[in-house]
Fold:
Amino acid sequence: MKIYLDNSATTPLNPHVLEAMLPFFTDKFGNASSIHSYGREANRAVSEAREIIAECINARPSEIYFTSGGTESDNWALKGAVYVSKNKYKHIITTQIEHPAILNTCAELEKQNVEITYMNPSNEGMINPKELSNLFTENTILTSIMFANNEIGTLQPIKEAARICREQSVLFHTDAVQAMDSQKIDVKELGIDMLSMSAHKFYGPKGIGVLFVKTGSRLGKLINGGEQERGLRAGTTPTPLIVGMAKALEISVRDREKNNQRILRLRNIFIDRVLSEIPYVYLNGNRENRLPNNVNLSFAFIEGESVLMRLDLAGIAVSSGSACASGSLEASHVILSLGVKEELAHSTIRFSLGVDTTEQQMDYVFNVLKKTVDDLRRMSPLYDYEKGIGSYV
Ligand SMILES: *Cc1c(COP(=O)(O)O)cnc(C)c1O
Structure:
């Protein structure tokens, strides 16, 4: 049995998306900037895709800029705001729980003397937008708060944060990469100035994303070159990827309610079972206010990596901490920011369900997980198996 529960790392390509993309790899290979019929054909497909994507978030087509993905969109939003600002001193507000695409961009900007303030979340992973008012300085140019966290799935109060920023004439950016698939996102209604998305998190292809930039928001360039994307983002237009992204988003929006309901039910049954049938397990992040497909659990007295490898042997793919942190042995910055102790943070596993997840799969996963935790605790020096208690030394 092969079970994929790592949909927050990436999602499988929807077969209808592949079908929509294929002609643009073969017959319709033209450069969308060319004047001849090949070019016009590609250009038409890109325009249509831009319209579809704009409509999905209630933006204008001219506010959609194609990028290479979520990472580039995040880099562009932050660096672009810094490059265009005439302030002598520049200040950005963000959170401790952002994706590395934001946090490492901030670290780079700090080296260039940009001041960064990192808001900390509550112990349930929520950012309090009311704290923003005390953080603005005369130099604040941008606030960036993620729509939904990629590790613990918590949804942030984006509308209120955007409103508070607007009152101070501070640009508001949100990394909506994790939220796109399951959340209804209306950039007008939410008052968002900039938004990042990435196709491979909603069953589209890898290597393509969008930065939405509201008309009138000033933004410097990240990539110099040709005149693509109204002169703001150079590079030959990747027509097949753009067509695929639009198709994927269209399907995601169409099936959203149905998928959310089904996945939420499977997710909640799983959380209830784990919390009631496996001792010393802690759910990270607010129970209600989270993505419908996210489960993030810490299993005291054992290592997350050991759980991950055992599940992998049983055909189950999950993630320990964030995918990006798991190459190193450092505990996840997100889990630590909740106030979880280092040892417990090391025992964290993220299960992210997807459109292909079934009830039978989740039953199997629960059974394997229960046995795995049991086996590993038997071997753990931190756990007295006979007494059923443990302690961290
Ligand atoms: C995956 C992810 C990114 C990076 O997107 P890529 O398209 O893989 O570069 C950025 N932010 C969040 C929250 C993500 O989950």
Notes: DSSP finds eleven helices and 14 strands in the chain. The chain has two domains: 3-7+256-386, 15-252. Residues 69-71, 74, 99, 101, 146, 150, 175, 177-178, 198, 200-201, 209 surround pyridoxal-5'-phosphate (CB under 6 Å). The radius of gyration is 22 Å.
